[in-house]
Amino acid sequence: MKRVMMIGRVSCGKTTLCQRLVGDPLVYKKTQTVEIIGQAIDTPGEYAENRRLMRGLTVSAVDADLIVFLQSCVDGECSFSPGQASMFGAPAVGVVTKTDLAPDDASKARARELLELAGVQKVFLVSSVTGEGIAEFADFLQTEQASAKQNG
Predict the structure, then answer these.
(1) pTM of the predicted protein model
(2) pLDDT digit string (tens) for 10-20?
(3) Which of 96, 26, 34 lies closest to 61, judged by CA?
(4) Helix (H, G, I), strand (E, B), or coil: what is residue 78?
(5) Would you say 63 and 39 are in contact if contact means Cβ atoms under 8 Å apart?
(6) Burial of 63: CB neighbours in 10 Å, binned 0-12, 13-18, 19+
(7) Domain count, the chain
(8) CATH number of the domain that 9 lies in?
(9) CA distances from 100 to 68, 110, 123, 127, 146 (A)
(10) pLDDT tens digits, residue range 33-60?
(11) What residue numbers bound the domain in which 127 lies?
(12) Are 47 and 56 contacting, i.e. CB atoms less than 8 angstroms apart?
């Protein structure tokens, strides 16, 4: 799998998605510092929410092959600026999380629109709890890794 960096607000599901991708038990834990889970760089939500901490994301992204922007479909707020994905030297994709908790399809569509506005190339809808969309996202990561090896 590619080295991916997860970016998103506090409690948007970054750590849970990382746990799901590597097959770890889903255990809630507040990420306090940048951590490595499998091939993922898991970042604290405060880095995305506080512009003064944004440098932590840019420094951590140096080792990433892919940037993953996460937006919970049950969170009415977004911390991404329009075109924010362009600040990274790696391609960016989006993941709409917590789809199992979505009150309606409109909330999923809104989360997708926010990610697209941030400048991601592709968007996945997932639920780390039910597994919805996880296989598709994991397959994408595997395909991207194979493609990078062939081109590298």
Answers:
(1) 0.90
(2) 999 999 999 99
(3) 34
(4) coil
(5) no
(6) exposed
(7) 1
(8) 3.40.50.300
(9) 20, 15, 17, 6, 30
(10) 788 888 899 998 898 888 888 888 888 8
(11) 4-151
(12) yes
